[in-house]
């Protein structure tokens, strides 16, 4: 997931720089180039948000997994239910 986000970030940077170069030269259709660059930035941002959400979900699952066997509380119902 993170490699995909990194690719979108790199693509957004490249699109943005190339669009600026073309705009500085006065090539027509500036609005279309700017739209592509903005869409690439939005895609990179959405990908980063999704990667962060997946990371938080993985941390939550790891916390739940470790809490069942590493808890110091003997009265924990999760620990008793998961005991072998």
Q: What structural category do the secondary elements indicate?
A: mainly alpha
Number of helices: 3
Helix percentage: over 70%
Strand content: under 5%
The low-confidence parts are: none
Distance between the termini: 35 Å
| Major beta-sheet overview | none
- Strand tally is 0
What does this protein look like?
This protein has 84 residues and is mainly α. It has one domain (2-82). It is 85% helix and 0% strand. The protein contains 3 helices and no strands. The mean pLDDT is 83.
Write the layout of secondary structure elements.
Blueprint: H1 2-25, H2 30-70, H3 77-82
Helix pairs in contact: 1-2
Quickly list its features.
84 residues, mainly alpha
Quick take:
The protein is mostly helical and 84 residues long. 85% of the residues lie in helices and 0% in strands.
